[in-house]
Amino acid sequence: MIGRLRGLIGAVGEGQALIDVSGVGYLVHCGSRTLQKLAVGEPAELFVETQMSESSIRLFAFASGEERAWFARLQDAPGVGAKIALALLDTLTLPQLMDAIALGDTSALSRANGVGKKLAERIVTEFKGKPPPMGLFAASFTATTSSTQPVAASGARAAAISALVNLGYNASDASRAVAQAARDTGEDAKEAVLIRAALKALAPTS
Fold it and tell me: What confidence score (pLDDT) does residue 206 get?
């Protein structure tokens, strides 16, 4: 199984890229977000999900371990294959995807090509209340390309959810509260800010 590739970008095409690793060219399938970060002739490091069938081996490449992990996790939902998973990751950032699942926002998921209302509902049902998947080997281990800074790990939300669970809230309520807090305070809010806003949302109303 190939989990990561580091080399020079040999070519970039529609939905695909060629990465030269020590003289061996690997053809990888990529979403548009990843492809936009690649430049021909420049070095890149990509996280790879390997899918094997009787007739082929396909490599799907991503700029971070978290994206690769979500690509694999999304396909656990009935009706979601590689094409739909890529469409979701192209349409929504990881924070937006996690918020949509936690808040049951099927309209946000339905913006992805090929995702109708029923499939969006299925995705929410499958993943709501579950912790996000970890990136490859470690959440903080992220890939870099020549044209971008290292991809930031989405650790603040996970840490905020974990803190709320440790305080006695169930995972589903914690995920929903943190998702709402992120929408209210901004996608880049830090852990402490998310926790304060989430606790306010979870506080019983009199």
Answer: 52
Q: What is the β-pairing status of strands 4-13 and 24-29?
A: unpaired
Pair (56, 74) in one structural domain: no
d(CA 63, CA 12) in angstroms, rounded, equals 15
For residue range 56-113, list pLDDT tens digits in order.
Answer: 899 999 999 989 999 999 999 999 999 999 999 999 998 889 889 988 999 999 999 9
AA letter at 170: N
**Higher local confidence (pLDDT), 64 or 147:** 64
The C-alpha atoms of residue 121 and residue 107 are separated, in whole angstroms, by 9
Residue closest to 16 by CA, chosen among 24, 7, 25, 28:
28
Residue 99's CATH number: 1.10.150.20
Q: How many angstroms separate the CA atoms of 31 and 131, rounded?
A: 24
Single-letter amino acid, residue 34:
T
Per the structure, the count of domains in the chain is 3
List Cα–Cα distances, 115 to 14, 75, 102, in angstroms: 21, 13, 17
What is d(CA 202, CA 200) in angstroms, rounded to the nearest whole number?
Answer: 5
Average pLDDT, the chain: 85
Residue corresponding to tokens 């044209």: 147
